[in-house]
Fold this sequence. Notes:
alpha+beta, 22% strand
Amino acid sequence: MKATNRLITCVAGVSLSCGAPDSAADIDARQAAVAEIGATVMPFDLDTSTHVFTKTPTGGLQQVVSDSNDPEQIGLIRAHLTEEATRFSAGDFHHPEMIHGEDMAGLHDLMNGYERMSIAYREIDEGAEILYTTEDPSLVTAIHAWFDAQLQDHGEHAQPHR
Length: 162
């Protein structure tokens, strides 16, 4: 089966655990599927917000910001990230698994190592952020891989910190 057909089959079945996309068309299809599924999990508008991922020596910083400084969107971002930080602190990474697939890079390591991480939520002017810190080098690697996978999957809705 061609990679494109494999990906479309998985998207139609709402399962994104199909492995890495093989072409630009596969990447576009995967990003569209992630955005569609993400809209059922994330209450804010992906088209008017940006995910920003910053890798650090002890983990990373995930921010979601409103591109238009819209108070309603900022409130939705903050509510979502508050919930996610609470879930992640308890080892519940179900939402990322739903959106990105069960084989998402770094995900299982984060699920298994959540007790060795500090996960801290904070509001920022344009939205909110979650800071992930750990002294465990394997978890730092997992966080970085998880960020890379999100950058790939969210496409134009995400960017690395510059």
